[in-house]
């Protein structure tokens, strides 16, 4: 046999062995890949890093039934639920902050005889952050200056109690009670909180209906109540919707002391240092202080300033 023929035969053998190995390896890879593909209703489906969630068959918000039998209501709530489930960064921080504030808000509402679910209003309004809207609404409850003053808050250049958690909540409670007197159910009250009592009442009258669920509304108000319901559903059953936050990662209520102030403070920076904290820390716990001074304007007036317990 010539040298050339030997080389040809060896080449053919190598090619056959290589082809067999590749086929076997490919077969194994396919088996592994196939095993990783999930089964749905007895059939394998391509892997997708998402999961659809069905709504509960019955839902109540503020003690009132959500009419899920209405296809429009069902689909709007379905959208808000899935949007918020997959808006991971936002929803994670809503869960964290809710652990600090939600029970406190519910407590204030319960004391006044209001449904605890109304505590989801400041959660969807501000995410429990002291933000300011383009229209000028401020604080957790996103109150306008005129609304804050109307319901008993001090709002000026030096003191703005829309940023005071307890006082702004009490003002919001007064607003919600007044709204309930006007509309007679809490779902309408929540919707009117977004669009205003006058605007909501006008739309009910113009469209000759008496329920939020029957109104054609602007996009923001159209989604508003449904977002509150969706966030409540997610927070009530976090693991069902894929949120596994360790307790150590949640935000908890902080231990604070109070200082009663009955005389003007010419410099809050100095006041903070005298009390063993920084001005930054003072502002963290008292965001309603808007300037570096605090003036007592009339006899008997006083303020309560919060500081960390360790100070």
Brief write-up:
This protein has 311 residues and is mainly alpha-helical.
Q: Explain this structure to me?
A:
InterPro entries: Lysozyme-like_dom_sf, Transglycosylase_SLT_dom_1. This is Transglycosylase SLT domain-containing protein. Residues 110-208 form the Transglycosylase SLT domain. With 311 residues, the protein is mostly helical. It has 3 domains: 3-44; 60-249, Lysozyme; 256-308. 51% of the residues lie in helices and 6% in strands. It contains 11 helices and 6 strands. It has helices at 3-36, 71-85, 88-111, 120-126, 145-150, 165-183, 186-195, 197-207, 219-236, 268-274, 279-285, and strands spanning 39-40, 43-44, 60-61, 64-65, 256-261, 303-308. It has a two-stranded antiparallel ribbon with strand order 1-2. α2 crosses α9 (219-236), α6 (165-183) packs across α7 (186-195) and α7 (186-195) crosses α8 (197-207). It is globular, with a radius of gyration of 30 Å. It starts with a helix and ends with a strand. Residues 25-35 have low confidence and may be disordered.
Question: Which labels suit this protein?
Answer:
two-stranded antiparallel ribbon, 3 domains, globular, two-stranded antiparallel sheet, Transglycosylase SLT domain-containing protein, mainly alpha, Lysozyme-like_dom_sf, 11 helices, Transglycosylase_SLT_dom_1, 51% helix, Lysozyme, 311 residues
